[in-house]
Design a protein that fits this description.
This protein is α+β, with helices and mostly antiparallel strands. The strands form 2 sheets. Strands 4-1-6-5 form a 4-stranded mixed beta sheet, with helices on both faces. It has a 3-stranded antiparallel beta sheet with strand order 2-3-7, with no helix packed on it. It contains 2 helices and 7 strands.
Length: about 130
């Protein structure tokens, strides 16, 4: 039996060659601000909504730039269940701060990829290959 793919959208907020990531519920794993795409919502709208819900920053969905999609084994799910994460680049003057289920925000580089689930590690590698982060 094939398990359904988990479809999510995430915000890539980059400052000074570092990527914003979060930890949730005092866990040590780093995630991108993002989450599942709601019915009737575009991926860009989901990324913008999740940015407000998780790190209290406002971004305009229409101004978000699609970067790439990562499709890998979903963290904490049965083998064979994939996550398909659409990543969007965005900017905001707001200072990210933890909100809701997020316990901390972190500015990371590829040196932190060992703390990421597969989708986050792949994202860091791709952003470094694009020369956007260290």
């Amino acid at each position: 039996m094939t398990l359904p793919t988990i479809r999510v959208a995430a915000l890539a907020l980059i400052r000074e060659r570092r990527l914003l990531m979060v930890t949730a519920r005092a866990r040590d794993v780093l995630y991108l601000p993002g989450g599942k795409i709601d019915p009737g919502e575009t991926a860009a709208e989901a990324a913008a909504r999740e940015a407000v819900e998780e790190v209290s920053v406002t971004v305009d969905p229409a101004a978000l730039e699609p970067l790439f999609t990562v499709t890998v084994q979903a963290h904490g799910e049965p083998v064979g269940r994939l996550v398909e994460m659409q990543l969007f680049a965005g900017t905001t003057p707001d200072d990210p701060r933890p909100w809701a289920e997020v316990s901390a925000v972190h500015w990371v580089t590829t040196a932190d990829s060992d703390r990421c689930p597969p989708a986050g590690a792949e994202t860091l590698a791709r952003l470094a290959a694009l020369d956007l982060i260290d």
